[in-house]
Amino acid sequence: MRPRVFWEHRVYPGHLSGLGGVRADLAADLAGFDPDTVDTLTLVTSELFANCCKYTDSGHEGGEVLRALSMPDPGTLRVGLSDFGGGGGVPAVPRERTADEWDRAEGQRGLLMVENLASAWGHHRLAPWADLGTHVWASLTFDPAGVPPGLRPYVFTR
Fold first, then answer.
1. Which whole-number Å values give the CA distances from 23 to 11, 97, 128, in the listed order?
2. Looking at the domain covering 14-155, what would its CATH class be?
3. Considering the entire predicted model, what is its pTM?
4. Around 36, how many Cα atoms within 13 Å sit in the side-chain half-sphere?
5. So where are the chain's domains?
6. Which residues form the Histidine kinase/HSP90-like ATPase domain (predicted)?
């Protein structure tokens, strides 16, 4: 069985202008994986990053978002985003809407997309006693045969 794989963490400014960099880095880090898997994980990561910027304190001046990426087993990729700064909201899929309200809703559909594309997702507070921020993660399963050959247990980013 292949050992776990961890990619070096990446840190981004906590504003939406950094989204292109997040996507480009993820594509570079996952070079050699099945393009559909990379595209799906990129879409999920983009939504989670945007939520970090929009709904938490990372979107304020000086805020940052940390991206973690791992392969905890041979057929799973997991991405996690941590907003630093505290005061953020708790991510939740909106459930208390009528069909008419959903038809008129402009926002809050991103986590529904994450829920439908990812095999699992969740969140937890970073040091809740100090309100340091929120960590949101999503896992995506894929065919282990799609793992690029020669992948090392720890991947340094460029």
1. 13, 31, 29
2. alpha beta
3. 0.82
4. 5
5. 14-155
6. 21-121
